[in-house]
Amino acid sequence: MNLPGIASLEDAEANSPVFDISQPRSMVETGLSEPLLTDLLCKHLYDAGSLDTGRLMSRMGLAGPVLEELLGLLRKDSQVEVLGQAAGGGGLRYGLTERGRASARDALARSGYIGPAPYPVERYRELLKAQTVHHGSITAGQMHQAFRGVVFHNGLLDQLGAALNSGRAIMIYGPAGTGKTYISSKLIRLFDENIWVPHAIAINEAIIEIFDPQVHRLAATDSAGLPSLRLDQGSDRRLLRCKRPILITGGELSMDQLDIRYDPIARQYQAPLQLKAGNGLFIIDDLGRQAMPPAQLLNRWIVPMEERKDYLNLGGGRHCELPFDVILVFSTNLNPLQLADEAFLRRIGYKLHFDHLTREEYAQIWRQEVEKLGLPYDPLLLRYVIEGLHQPEKVPLLPCHPRDLLGMALDRQRYLGKSAQLTPDELQWAWQNYFVRLQDTEQGEPS
């Protein structure tokens, strides 16, 4: 796959596609306007007081020739002056004149962004398409390797693999505690390539921050274990090498987080969540628990799901079209028919039901957990939990129960200073503390 300015390479270690993004060597090659770049340079000098060329290159993510061009323009306009040689051979040191400081204040009044130069939105569209998360197919072997040791109910793993290959949105539903969130969060194991993520993008003169350290994991590190600013020789420093992102949001999700947001105090634009998850996974957990009606949230995705494009609003009647390149996963404890009508559900390619476990599946998870905790496996203790605790109170077998019950029993042992093998009494104690006990006998089983 070859696109303008993007040369396809092969990562020998990860055996996955990566892209060598050429470092711009002139102001024209940045794809940005002269006013945007000169404003940004003035803001950096205003923020720091004075900077040498090396620190300017680091802060703005631009090569020396581009900065020399910009500094020449600003010096010609009497906005920047040379303050002398920097200590330690860092090149010339620059500062703002009074005229330059006035320009910087005007620039900050329009935009509070002070960071690396943004990536132009036209090239970002190409980058999203070139790094698509739908670049290949997932095999049964890859699925079983990625989830080795994870117990699935009734062939659900292979259903999930086929769903991922479809490129369509996925809905997973079922009772709480059946592993929906856990399995969803592990899907990123199947997409372990490195991608390029811009610090920010420019849509005309608006700068929208994309890189989010809470979402993006840096792939390149220097010898000190810190993120490398250089990345590859000749690569565009406005981009960071990251693992494919996975973004999980739940009941706290609001509609404004799905569009470009402007902070009037900081005077900065923030990218919507689906754009931060670009080229990765976007999981909406606890669907139906958000403040907005489920239909409103689901309707937000009709156009992106069908057209693979997202139309974002910048305010003031301005809109921007960007590729919608994410694997979109909805997860809910509710009946999907309570959330949307059948016409909408047909637009979601796969609906996967996570159900209660069989006795054999529960036993597999129990054995894994006791081994993980370094405890001896006692089949009689497991039998007591199933037949003496679950069955009398008609509590379904869920994947979360072995870990939680064993952990609580060990909590009690540590509190009492014990280290002996777990007993039925200790698991009975954990059981009593694990479930909410309702006084109203008409409520039925514990919850």
UniProtKB/TrEMBL annotation:
Residues 166-358 form the AAA+ ATPase domain. InterPro entries: AAA+_ATPase, P-loop_NTPase. SUPFAM superfamilies: P-loop containing nucleoside triphosphate hydrolases. It comes from the Bacteria. This is AAA+ ATPase domain-containing protein. It comes from Geopseudomonas guangdongensis.
